[in-house]
């Protein structure tokens, strides 16, 4: 049995601490900023000693920012809700479409299967602005401009290829013999897919769903071009605190804290799937 | 509403009482400040309806949609919007987008021919693209049509240089505001460039605001070397058109330098003239000696933040940038002074280049006449006064507002602001030569400034390279 020396343990502890500080300090600093006024944030030199205020969170949640010239309306909570609607619905739709498709690409060889799969992947390579202007015109003509449905459809460009390609790798890793055995017992293809293949690939599906959720959450340009202000996600909404009369650093920090919360919660919940899923899908047997 | 309040509004609308008297009597009636502001807006609108000579209800029931930038000017308009709805019976909705992405949204909306928006906020420079492309409407026909334009709207009350700066024929190199110029937008509020400085630091060091570029360089160096823990002069430096248009261009043209010359109708880049080289050399030296450490990343925000936080002694930038720092939630609140600035000691007056937030009408609007009613109201004396006195709609574009006693009283709380405006206004206009590659040219200009400040290229050589590269671009675009 290998024993680590005290020196090794201390060194490991120091290195882990340094890594944690390096990665977590910006988040910690943003958290501190979210409880400060602009004047406190901008003082020179900066200090971690301050009288905390909840004003930034109150402004965001109530949607009212008190300034020297009056009360200004903020739409941040609406932006947050939009992000949730767009990301959750896009990922859900992609899962419904991409998981069976991934299974088909993994299990069956049919004409043009690789070409189709690659075409779907190529959507990830295309610069969004290349397709957005023509899409704007089409969306206006068919009445999809400025609708959640239209945006969720366009978000498939982000989420669908990602889920399809990640999950396909998982299905390929699962031995078809298990499914065959189940089928021999008299079960249908669909039942075999739902009861055997999907549960076995669940870590991969969870990992793919989480990753695509993060990508969808961070998207900026689709809603900006295709929708009105009332459909904008947090990525656009957070910029509203940067105005000609100054940058509201405290509110930006509070907005960051609030907007990373759903992703963080989801990541923590799916953490075990994520690590297992990412490592399993990476190597083909 | 109660009778007393209604009578009070009517009295103000009939001009039987002044605004100050109105506010005093409102307070006696126990009305809150917010309600008083609203009543004042309504009363001003009543006055507009009474004197206009047009039927403001003509488009009653029409719905308009605006595309706005998140800005104090838009906030002022939104705060007063009920007055317009009451006046016209129209409904107005709006989309507000952050400034960082605003012009991307405008470009996407206009280039796709979207009829979603009827009117939009724009800068004058942007109209050099939008206008010739046919995306926005030439407003001259509306301005000159007495059946659609209120008699008391008084276009001539808008500062003449601003009217000229927002109109252009579309011919590259042709002067703004010429006879064939089209009025692409209406000036809404604007900023000119002058010195905003830290009064406390200047008082403690016993120095006055600088009067010319040499003096500015000396005083900036003095501040940097002092024990004030601040650098001398804040100016913008990012690789963007926005680095060129404020202090830099204002000083540059004060020495007689130009961006382009027009020879036989052909545009030639002129950033390497003797005057341009001499000024640029001094500017670069000033930044190297007394500018911020990360100058090449500096935008509007950093320049303003440093002044507000007491990290810089002064800025040569938009006067309203200093105003916002002096009136916002900043460490140096109330401690910022303002001073007009002519970089050239031999110049007759300051020559600040201006940025004008304006309102334009989308050519794809299905409600153009109704939109014109909105544009008139939003640029009217009444709304301009409301925005300037009650909100942060500074600088107002109308002379009548600058002459208004309430506005003056408000601005007097900003040391030297009115004086710098009075000295700067006559020479304030857009000094760029209008041409469609404006953003490419100014971005290349800023990039070259960065190289010169970083000592990667000597000033004279850098400007020769810049001119060659811009002439090449102009040629490729068929402009030479």
Automatic annotation (TrEMBL), chain A:
TM spans (from-to): 12-32, 84-106, 118-139, 151-171, 192-217, 249-270
Ranges of residues in domain ABC transmembrane type-1: 80-270
Topology in membrane: Multi-pass membrane protein
Pfam families per the UniProt record, alphabetical: BPD_transp_1
Record's keyword terms, sorted: Cell membrane, Membrane, Transmembrane, Transmembrane helix, Transport
Compartment annotation: Cell membrane
Family: Belongs to the binding-protein-dependent transport system permease family.
PANTHER family documented for this protein: INNER MEMBRANE ABC TRANSPORTER PERMEASE PROTEIN YCJP (PTHR32243:SF18), MALTOSE TRANSPORT SYSTEM PERMEASE-RELATED (PTHR32243)
Name this polypeptide is given: Carbohydrate ABC transporter permease
Organism listed in the record: Jiella sonneratiae
TrEMBL record, chain B:
Protein name according to UniProt: Extracellular solute-binding protein
UniProt entry keywords in alphabetical sequence: Periplasm, Signal, Transport
Family, similarity comment: Belongs to the bacterial solute-binding protein 1 family.
Origin species: Jiella sonneratiae
Localization terms from the record: Periplasm
A Pfam cross-reference name: SBP_bac_1
Gene3D superfamilies xrefs: Periplasmic binding protein-like II (3.40.190.10)
Main location: periplasm
